[in-house]
Amino acid sequence: MDPFKTGIRKIDEKMGGILPGSNVLLLAPPFADAERLAVHLAQPGNSDYTIVLSADQDAQEIAMDFGLPESEGHRLWIIDCITKTMVPTIPDGEQVKYVGSPVDLTGIGIKFTKILNGIQRTEAARNNLPGTLRIRVCVNSLSSFLIYTRLEVIYRFFHILSARIRRVNGIGIYILNSEGVDEKTISTLKQLMNGMIEVKVDAADPTVRDLCYQMTNGESVPSIRYRFSGNDLAEEP
Amino acid sequence: MIYTGITALDEMIGGGVPAGKRVLFSLAPGVDGQQFMFSTLNCAHRMGKRCLVIVPYTSAEAFLSDLSTTPYGVEHDNRMIILDTNTFEEIEARSRTPEEKFAAWETRIDAVYERTSLDAVFLYCNRLCDDIGTEKALSLFTEWCMRRGATLFVEYLNLYDEKHLDALTASNPFDLVISIGEGYGNLLFVNHFKVRHVTWTSLPVREIPYVIREDGSVSPQIPKIVVTGPVDAGKTTFIQTVSENWVSSDRIGISGSPTTVAMDFGHPLVSCRGFEITLVGTPGQEHFGPIINHLLTNATGVIFIVDGTSVESLCRGMEILETVRQMGVPFVIAVNKREMPGQLSDATLRTIMRLSERTPLSHISALNREEAMGVIDALIVLITRETFME
Known about the structure:
Oligomer: heterodimer
Low-confidence stretches of chain A: none
Shape of chain A: globular
Number of strands of chain B: 17
Order of helices and strands of chain B: HEHEHEHHEHHEHEEEEHEEEEEHEHEHEH
CATH superfamily of chain A: P-loop containing nucleotide triphosphate hydrolases
Number of domains of chain A: 1
Mean pLDDT of chain A: 94
Distance between the termini of chain A: 31 Å
Number of helices of chain B: 13
CATH class of the largest domain in chain B: Alpha Beta
Largest interface: A-B, 27 and 26 residues
CATH architecture of chain A: 3-Layer(aba) Sandwich
Order of helices and strands of chain A: HEHEHEHEHEHHEHEEEE
CATH architecture of the largest domain in chain B: 3-Layer(aba) Sandwich
CATH superfamily of the largest domain in chain B: P-loop containing nucleotide triphosphate hydrolases
Strand content of chain B: 25-35%
CATH topology of chain A: Rossmann fold
Structural class of chain B: alpha/beta
Structural class of chain A: alpha/beta
Mean pLDDT of chain B: 91
Strand content of chain A: 25-35%
Helix content of chain A: 25-40%
Number of helices of chain A: 8
């Protein structure tokens, strides 16, 4: 199975992208546009599907951020953990599922399973040949889940979720605010991952970011400087 | 008694949950199993029970809205009290230590009880377990319900393994523990439930497959009952008699009468003991041996049909019966052609087939639907309630 392209030239050229079955921690300080970077990495390719598990943004905002054309709308699936706290009776749609709150881990797990089944149905309905689905999962964000639930429980839950992502040869991108949690939390959550993208804000120019991508197998791409222009990521020379 | 509303489960546990018992539904992550608690709540409410529902992870309105998307929706009337995320946050804000929170919850449910005596408590416990500790949270409710004589139903998301569940139930006195998990043998598209422990009846620990129907209801399954036996015993007739939909692979044989050459397939007219059943019929001729063995693979149970008027037929089927025995699959014997003269006695049949007294054996006419369904019923009892396989 081919690696998942990241749309970041240096990573795609050196490593081919993110390897199937990878879970990648996206560690970034506040105001470093981690969400935009996660959207960029999780953009579904021509044959991919994206599942966003969100405790930070509602489904509408997520759909806007991804900005997929209508013809590609079937590639984005969302588990929205916040809308139901404001609109309790909102019903599930085919591609958008709602859970009671970010603490409803039972509901999140069930909706994740339903979405995987839904993607398979979509593939079958589009007469695509049976094969391995290419799935990108974006968790926005671990920091928010940690506000509501103890680290041990979050670790167990995402241990199971990340294993499912590995099993389906997908990739997972997990946003974590590096300044919102302590070292112990970061090192605990790192155990679930086989890659990490660390983002820093350039001290001299706050619109420029610097990311470093490291896999647990030793491969790495150090120091990629970039900035966002709208939703487009532009790498600095 | 409170029914779970899942007929197959109620049948297995002797009708339902007796008053004052404590029940734990343990869910594996990602498994669509919330319907077990939903269905039980729906039944309790329809039975006129006064219910307290504790849903710390969401609002009462959202909970009822979720329930209404399944066949188990309930009306929020004065027999249904819901303590939701607002109660949780209120207690959270006022109490600092787990001990204070424990006391605050106890005071809160006492206050509910003083206003309305309760028949049943439905607890979604994970957020409370996270907040005040799993053992404390569970003991708060098991002990409270024991004191007040209320029946307790707990739904617990088990993020660990079955050993964790054993440890949990060892320290808390549950009368019924049901674990709900993913897959069933080689079948990944169905889930299963397992009665791990029950105090008021005797049941073997056995995985029972189920699916969630389009409408959101639970449908326990017996995914593969294989109907086998020697040629001309009446296997195809049996499947046709009990099935609403069936497909037969009969072709005219050398003898001039139809014979099965591949596989028969049927769905019974009604579910049996709350199970949806699929029947698979094998050919009976000896040269189809490899197909028969293949069709027996992953069978949940076997109906072995013989012609009760023919010793020769019995002897021909012994090889197939031996294969079934070696597979360790529960099986029952249907002795067909009851209406014909020259029936062999039970003793002769058991001797020839080397059957113990415990193996169910019924004399039937495969043309009689009631008698044929009786055979399926006996097999389901064997699969779900007996200790055949152990």
